[in-house]
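Q: Could you predict the 3D structure of DUF7580 domain-containing protein?
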Amino acid sequence: MAMEIASLTIAVFDQLLRLGEKTAKLVSDIRAFDEDVGSLKLRIQDENNRTKQLKALLFEHSPTYGDVSLFEHLNEDVQDQIQILLLQAVAKLQEALDLLHRRHIIEDEKPCTLSPSSPPNNGLSIFANLRLSTRSPIRLLRWSLRDKARTQTLLTEFTELNGRVHENIKLFLLSSNLARNINQQLHLQHLQTDPASVNLGFNVDAALRILANGPPCHAATDDLEIEDGYRIDSLTTNIVTLNERFGVTSFHDRSYITEFRRYDPGHDPTCVNGKEQAIDPRTKSLLNGLTRLLRQPKEQVFLIRGCEGWRYLPDRERVMFVFDIPQGCESTPISLLDLLRNPKAKPSLNEKLQMAFGLARCISQLQMVRWVHESFRSENILFFPQRPDPVEPIEREERVNYSEPWVFGFEFSRPEGFFSHGLTDVCLERDVYRHPDRQGRPNVLFSKVHDIYALGVVLLEIGLWEPWDKLQKVENAWRKDAWSLQALLVQHAQRFLGRRMGEKYKSIVVKCLSGHFAVVDDTREDLKLQQTFRAEVVDVLERAMGSI
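A: Sure. Here are the predicted structure tokens for DUF7580 domain-containing protein:
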């Protein structure tokens, strides 16, 4: 059965590749598109190249998989899903090709000539003969008004669909879907080095999965604390504190953003008379493990700045993480929470959707590499305004690029399953973003749905463009119980989001807050939840953003 599915899937891949080649050629032949023909052709060729790499990765035999293909080791359910996704892409591209082919034939045919003195043929009127003419105004008008627009839409939809094929296959390969006894670590290492996987970018995510799955850092051999010396002296003495969580510092004319995590020496057995001598080995291992994940190269979609390292500041009872700053931007960031409270900050509908899409995709990427954030809220989402133009200065709020939020707040962030329950923390400004199961002293392990809940609260704030503390009756609901707070947030979304952001956006926020993704019998890695979240949240936001 598995071999039959593999053979059918190879045939679908081949059909998709042939259609892509034909489409690219016809696009070159037909110069009746509004957009640049060369750009459109290159886009189709890029999708074709991606399809070739996917086929090579899935079906080239490798010793890692016992000299059979990777595809044959996938569960049959996953194999079927890959085939269905590919067939959808084939259908979309075939429809576009049919329209292009009809236009290509129209242009290649010799036009029939009509003479005013020629009698109608077989009783047809001259108007009917005009309709038969390949260059008649009616047929050209039909292409201009209907077929051309439809072809452009189909090619755009194909690109988006092929992107979803790519992302779903990556999700399948990074999760534990190998039906036979293949070592997961060897499989991930193969994804790191296989040429097709590298060309597709799967190697970057595979490296993150290996780090997330790996053993804790050894304090002696994997120490990522910034060492003593001129550099750390400069970094720590030049800190300009923004608030209790963030600061800006510099070294050698380069600016960095710093993030602080409280380290209470009173709970450390290594303290002497209340004064800490050093960070205990377990905490140091956790800090090194987190820094190792943060500094690992990532795709832009993770929205995580590169981490230079960490440093303990005993006089401040803080641990400091040091991150780089985007080029061409101011060193002092603005948090999403501050923007929500700033009357001068007035993003457009499309800018709100860009923010929402980027943040939803970030959560999706973290889930894919089995990494939960656990402290996702508006104060931990930062924007770095573009540097002002000395010739035409504009307000700082107008220089914010809303399509480029950066996610911080990693003091509790961890590989999935790393910690158990957590400590008691009762605070409204943090609880409002926490799922009811995680408020107070959590008795439920943190899971993907809890980060999705926090995302729902942030999307509610973005949609209403109001911070959580401006929402009516929030504090009263919180004082009652955690579930009342959740119900109130859902109520706000249902009452106000539709007319401000549209029904689809409202539905997304309600789904994130309520956790109603209609997933049953999920896998150990919540694969069905991840797929549904992508399809019903990330993809819907992407389409909404592209339609404006």
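Q: Anything worth pointing out?
A: The chain is about 50% helix and 10% strand.
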